[in-house]
Design a protein that fits this description.
By secondary structure, the chain is of the alpha/beta class. It has one domain: Rossmann fold (3-Layer(aba) Sandwich), CATH 3.40.50.170. It has 7 helices and 10 strands. It is globular. This is Phosphoribosylglycinamide formyltransferase. Residues 6-185 form the Formyl transferase N-terminal domain. InterPro entries: Formyl_transf_N, Formyl_transf_N_sf, GART, GART_AS.
Length: 216
């Protein structure tokens, strides 16, 4: 029997995507072992969720380090020491030093609330509405030195309604994120999604983002 995939999660906020991953594991749908949940904010709700689930936690204060690189090196050293095989960025609101993250090529993914390459960075829902887009979505991509610029492996899409606000759009999209991220992690855990210098799904290169239906 294949052992569960050891994963670490980084989050800066309440941890709703972490909660979705934990729920999928508890439901027997996600063969993973959480070895660490880390944050740059000691008050992050994600850390409380992890503690309640019996998952080891780590909070590092960026202000305690001389610069961003020093913080990132310490953070990633601790992640490596946890034995994590996959790093999941689930609402981690910091740009990671390119040289540091390079050592995790193909072993780190991020979920971002836009249809990348549209709207990297912050305020994605506002930017979508301001542009008059007909649809919005979320993307899961491999992490590279470029902000939200790594290869996209999966996306979920929702229509933008005439009466949508930033809040309503965010809420509807979050429900899709909570399905998409566990599905991608599950595909990695099962070996269906692999990194071989590029993303490969079921033995074929990922040339366009996978859908939730394909992943399940």
């Amino acid at each position: 029997m294949t052992p569960p995939l050891r994963i670490a999660v980084l989050a800066s906020g309440r941890g709703s995507n972490l909660a979705a991953l934990i729920a999928a594991r508890d439901a027997g749908k996600l063969p993973v072992e959480f070895v660490l949940v880390g944050s740059d904010k000691a008050s992050a709700g994600a850390l409380r969720l992890a503690e309640e689930a019996g998952i080891p936690t780590l909070a590092l204060n960026p202000k305690s380090y001389p610069d961003r690189t020093a913080f990132d090196r310490e953070l990633f050293a601790r992640i490596a020491a946890s034995g994590a095989e996959l790093l999941v960025l689930a609402g981690f609101m910091r740009v990671i030093d390119g040289a540091v993250v390079a050592g995790w090529e193909g072993r780190a993914i991020n979920i971002h609330p836009s249809l990348l390459p549209r709207y990297p960075g912050l305020h994605t829902h506002r930017r979508c509405l301001e542009a008059g887009d007909a649809e919005h979505g979320a993307s899961v991509h491999y992490v590279t030195a470029e902000l939200d610029g790594g290869p996209v492996v999966a996306q979920a899409r929702i229509p933008v309604g005439a009466n949508d606000t930033e809040t309503s759009l965010a809420e509807r999209l979050l429900a899709e994120e909570h399905k998409l991220l566990p599905a991608v992690v599950g595909a990695i855990a099962s070996g269906r999604l692999r990194w071989n210098g590029e993303a490969v799904f079921d033995g074929r290169p990922v040339t366009k983002p996978l859908t939730l239906a394909q992943l399940l």
